[in-house]
Amino acid sequence: MSLESGQQIELKTTPDPYVTVRYAGASGDFNPIHIDEEFAKGVGLPGRILHGLWSMAQVARAVTDAAGGAVPGTEASPRGPEAGYTLRSLSVQFRGMGQIGEEVVVSGTVELVEDGLATAKLEAKQGDSRLIRNAVAEVRAD
Amino acid sequence: MVLRLKESSPMPPQDKIGKRYSPGVYAVGREKIREYAYAVGETNPLHTDLDAARAAGYADLVAPPMFAVVYKAPVFMPALFDPELEINFAMLVHGAQEFRWDGPAVVAGDELTTELIVKDIYDRPGLRFYVFESTSNNQHGQTVCVGTWTNIIRGVE
């Protein structure tokens, strides 16, 4: 799947009540602000909040889904691990705190395609609250 | 429960810029990739279906790019708790993050060695920035991911 300049990227996902528990186990980040409602409220948060790196993973997924997958290998053209990831880089700035149960919308635009590399700019929001801003992804466009 | 906020030291510990931490080795497991893929909602079968991964030319399941947080954490977390860095946890915010994946894709069975360095420490009005850079190489010596963490301490006088 090729990416073209001006192409829109979008991914929507609603974190269920246990997504932070699963992510804590998978990532090893057991900071109680993500998994313990009472602790989170005790430090002044509205409740448990999403892991920032989970939200970043949703931005990564939006880009790799648009690129046809995280790696270029397909049954038609196996290239193996040496071909590397389609996603070459991703940088983000974290902003608002992510709420559980509220839809996360990742949106962005492919701004430039040059020498087989596309640059996309993205953000992740819940309603009007931005979880991630100024995300820049470099992704193989071929 | 309310966390007690301790004071940050008046000057950033800039003599710790360049400090290196002992490399850590992480063995990438098939089920750990499945667990991570499930936790972040990955649906691509190359991350979960061994037959699909092998049909595509991979020796085993392919780790999603952001699986980097899993194999880098064992080196990164101890550095955060390094008393020499004087990080005030109660005021810690993960400000920004960057990863670069220029090498081969990570697959189950890989053994990855991660090195971590304190890239920068500096103050801005009311804030202290800690920048860490980690480099992960596979068992063939190929760099698979370079990560840059920017952590911000609020309430610095």
Terminal CA distance of chain A reads 7 Å
Q: What is the rounded distance between the termini of chain B? A: 25 Å
Average pLDDT for all residues of chain B? 92
Q: Looking at the structure, what is the overall shape of chain B?
A: elongated
The number of helices of chain B is 3
Largest sheet features of chain A: 5 strands, antiparallel
Give average pLDDT of chain A, whole number: 91
Can you write the helix and strand succession of chain A as a string?
EHHHEEEE
Q: How would you characterize this protein structure?
A:
The complex is a heterodimer of chains A (142) and B (157). Chain A has 142 residues and is of the alpha+beta class. In chain A, 21% of the residues lie in helices and 33% in strands. In chain A, strands 1-3-4-5-2 form a 5-stranded antiparallel β-sheet, with helices on one face. In chain A, a hairpin with a 2-residue loop joins strand 4 (117-126) and strand 5 (129-140). Chain B has helices spanning 30-40, 50-55, 68-80; strands at residues 20-27, 92-100, 111-124, 127-137, 143-154. In chain B, strand 4 (127-137) and strand 5 (143-154) form a beta hairpin. The longest helix of chain B is centred in the middle third of the chain and has 13 residues, at 68-80. The A-B interface holds A 13, 19, 22-23, 25-29, 38-39, 42-44, 52-54, 56-58, 60-61, 64-65, 69-71, 73-75, 78-85, 87-94 and B 1-3, 32, 35-36, 38-42, 44, 46-47, 55-59, 62, 64-66, 69-70, 73-74, 77, 93-107, 148. Strand 2 (87-94) of chain A pairs antiparallel with strand 2 of chain B.
